Amino acid sequence: MSKYNKESINGYSYFTFDNIYKFKSLIFKNQDEVVYASIDNINFEVIRNINGFYQTFKVFGDNDIIDFIIDKSFSIETDHESTKGFIKNSGWTGADGVYSFELGTNVYWYFSDTFIGEVDKTTRKRVPGFKMINNSVGKSSLNNIFDIEFKYNQDNNVPSSIFVPNDGSYLWLQDGVIDNSKFYITALNVKDPVVKDEWFRVVGAKLIELPIINNVPDYNNYTIMDKSLLFEHGSLTYTFGASILNNKEIDGYIYVFGYDSNISRNMICFRTKDIANQLSYEYLLEDGYSKTINKNFKTLAKNIACEFRVIYDDDIYKIAYTFGSLSSDIVYGETLNIEDGFLNTELIYRCNEHLENKTTITYNAKLHKFSNTSDLYLTYNVNTLDNDEHINANIYYPRVLKLKKG
């Protein structure tokens, strides 16, 4: 039997489940006969309807529903315990742009804009003197994934970013990959606006190369390289590095995913056998892979976010991302072949932080896969459009969801 609570209120029956599930059908009694009915053929109101994923049903009358049949492929739950790993009151006190990768028995994390300072434990307000830096990193054990030791630089006791270009710009970290015994991270190259009240300006994309010493990335000896990860072609701008999939054990390639500047923001990709060698990049166009861009890119998904993650899990390529980049909706898709794309995604979760404050935004959801568990994790970022609200440390830190299989 499925786990749910039933309440009868004003002539309606409410069925509320412990998690968000994907349902196949209902089981109910009809004149002492057990009947199975497809969800699509039942006339009822759904409080939280997410394209077949439900948490609460509202049904008229004191009905004879016996049980609900669940698609046991996976369920989604808010992982409050793991989220606590990102709630800190001293030093690192929140960030966005969260990515992770395994190396040896550890998990290495990296983040973009990061708050450093003190937070009042009672009020959760930032103590005056806090500072925002543009990137930071972290480390945890596979045995305790979300018990993270955060790291950032200190210049004369002033917090500073781990990765700093020498041209006055700054870097927001994207996905990374281990290749040829080195760790590579893609990063957006950003400059502050020249006109007041303008947003930031993305002026390029870089590839950061780090040595790996005894299974540890050497953050003190990195090289920032130009590899044409952001360029204009025709009327559009193309940006790569939002997601990287090391697929060498399957077909010998690394796949670097990105997006174009269309209003619908289409997902695109190139593949390579050596990410540091730009001449090896093969772009996926409408008629196949090519080292020269002589046709349109093939669209692998629509309304893609600026950050997302493609993973290979259970012999299937999987993706999750925030629909349209800034929204409460997280979509999920699967494909057997990268070239077929993820054009048939479904909405699996709706963030609710914006319900508390109209200026709160959620964005850039992504998958995380770890070798010591069959379950997958999702993180998404929470921020505010009102800069004055950043004093509230309860807003700006990653949230964690768990995708539990079967």
Beta fraction of the residues?
over 45%
CATH hierarchy class name of the largest domain: Mainly Beta
Counting DSSP E segments of at least 2 residues, the number of strands comes to 34
Looking at the overall shape, the CATH architecture of the largest domain is 5 Propeller
Q: Can you describe what's shown?
A:
This protein has 2 domains: 4-76, no CATH class; 79-405, 5 Propeller (Tachylectin-2, Chain A). The protein is built from 2 helices and 34 strands. It has helices at 80-83, 248-251; strands at 4-9, 12-30, 33-38, 45-46, 49-50, 53-60, 65-78, 90-95, 99-103, 106-111, 114-118, 131-133, 136-141, 144-151, 153-155, 158-160, 170-179, 182-191, 201-213, 216-217, 223-226, 230-233, 236-247, 253-260, 267-272, 282-285, 288-290, 309-313, 316-322, 329-335, 346-350, 360-368, 376-384, 399-405. Strands 1, 2, 3, 4, 5, 6, 7, 32, 33 and 34 form a 10-stranded antiparallel sheet that branches. Strand 13 (136-141) and strand 14 form a beta hairpin. The longest helix is centred in the N-terminal third of the chain and has 4 residues, at 80-83. The radius of gyration is 23 Å and the shape is globular. Mean pLDDT is 88; it is low at 30-51.
